[in-house]
Prior knowledge:
The complex is a heterodimer of chains A (111) and B (113). With 111 residues, chain A is mainly β. Chain A is built from no helices and eleven strands. With 113 residues, chain B is mainly beta. Chain B starts with a strand and ends with a strand.
Amino acid sequence: RKEVEQDPGPFNVPEGATVAFNCTYSNSASQSFFWYRQDCRKEPKLLMSVYSSGNEDGRFTAQLNRASQYISLLIRDSKLSDSATYLCVVNYGGSQGNLIFGKGTKLSVKP
Amino acid sequence: DAGITQSPRHKVTETGTPVTLRCHQTENHRYMYWYRQDPGHGLRLIHYSYGVKDTDKGEVSDGYSVSRSKTEDFLLTLESATSSQTSVYFCAIREAGRTGELFFGEGSRLTVL
Lengths: 111, 113
């Protein structure tokens, strides 16, 4: 069974804090990995892809650990606008793209 | 923003009635998807399409059918709606070769009474 597990949270942090989310996946054949962001009652939007060597986009850093089968998302200097649910997404391959979505981790950034 | 629209955005219907949700894109992307999202579950794939008239089942396809007669339109039909199909339905599109990079519509909230 292909599964993607996330801590549902909520993570309640003050502005300016650093927060990290982890996500574990069950199938070692997984090919690619992504983080999506979903605001309350809105559609998911791609936040960033996760590369094997790790990658950074401004205050966001994504890491992949294939040996332990987890990916992480680090948010530095949290802003109120970062409040959202973060979805971990794993591509298990195939030309059609077999994406499995985690249930999401909710982040609430407080003033 | 990607040109993708869903209609209707909200619908309340009764058990046993047919329902069709429409997804329309202006991006000419080959791949289109229908997902449902429910509390306690991640997004789950219902059906997807990889071209005109080319569709396949996803994880939770029972009770749903789809059609794609034009590149820009992907229809999701509930032949006889049940209360378990109360959900938020998202359509998504992606370019060929960009697996994992989905653009979602705003969602269609369906309530089956």
